[in-house]
């Protein structure tokens, strides 16, 4: 009898609680007026699972002026998990230098030795190339993962929270 009462209390209490949860508000972050490209990094395990909890950066070097700018790529989900950021690239040739820190999550026993080293990769990129949906920047592999680097057209992004949430590079 006590077990039945406890289960009934659990169902009533938690059913009422979950019904009171309101959907989280999303704030749209539109591309800036000069943002032209959306850079994406897609790290995946040997089995094809996307890997979260990595700090991902890209250093963009203008090959003509030698100007440099670093961007942190944000964890994103759109069809599949990836890291992305909108950037401004005038037509020209660039060197994109990517740096991925090892994931910070706790690995299971059979994965404890995977993804322990930082990954650096660099690729030339011609921002004047016309493309419809996306263009492959490059790809690299380690013993444990494959990483795909792509560019799309700058796009709106959505972040949890209401007014006051700021978008940082």
Keyword list:
169 residues; mainly beta; disordered N terminus; disordered C terminus
Question: Can you describe what's shown?
Answer:
- There is one protein chain.
- With 169 residues, this protein is mainly beta.
- The protein has one domain: Sandwich (Immunoglobulin-like).
- Helices cover 11% and strands 45% of the residues.
- The chain has 1 helix and 10 strands.
- An 8-stranded antiparallel beta sheet has the order 7-6-3-4-5-2-9-8, with no helix packed on it. Strands 1-10 form a two-stranded antiparallel sheet.
- Strand 4 and strand 5 form a beta hairpin.
- The radius of gyration is 21 Å and the shape is globular.
Mean residue pLDDT: 84
Question: What ranges have pLDDT less than 50 throughout 5 or more consecutive residues?
Answer: 2-14, 163-169
CATH architecture: Sandwich
Determine the CATH superfamily.
Periplasmic metal-binding protein Tp34-type
The description of the largest β-sheet is: 8 strands, antiparallel
Number of helical elements: 1
User: What percent of residues are in strands?
Assistant: 35-45%
Overall radius of gyration: 21 Å
Shape: globular
Counting helices, strands and paired strands, the structural category is: mainly beta
Order of helices and strands: HEEEEEEEEEE
Helical proportion, percent range: 10-25%
Number of strands: 10
Distance between the termini: 58 Å
Provide the domain count: 1
CATH topology type: Immunoglobulin-like
Strand order of the largest sheet: 7-6-3-4-5-2-9-8
User: What is the CATH C-level name?
Assistant: Mainly Beta
């Amino acid at each position: 009898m006590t077990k039945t009462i406890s289960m009934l209390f659990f169902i009533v209490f938690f059913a009422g609680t979950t019904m009171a949860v309101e959907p989280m508000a999303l704030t749209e972050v539109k591309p800036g007026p000069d943002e032209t490209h959306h850079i994406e990094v897609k790290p995946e395990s040997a089995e094809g699972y996307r890997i979260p909890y990595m700090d991902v950066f890209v250093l963009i070097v203008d090959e003509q002026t030698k100007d440099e700018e670093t961007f942190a790529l944000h964890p994103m989900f759109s069809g599949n998990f990836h890291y992305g950021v909108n950037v401004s690239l005038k037509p020209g040739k660039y060197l994109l230098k990517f740096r991925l820190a090892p994931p910070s999550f706790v690995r299971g026993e059979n994965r404890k030795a995977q993804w322990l080293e930082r990954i650096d990769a660099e690729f030339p990129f011609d921002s004047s190339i016309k493309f419809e949906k996306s263009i492959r920047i490059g790809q690299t592999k380690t013993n444990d993962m494959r990483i795909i680097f792509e560019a799309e057209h700058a796009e709106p992004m959505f972040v949890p929270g209401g007014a006051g949430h700021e978008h940082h590079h």
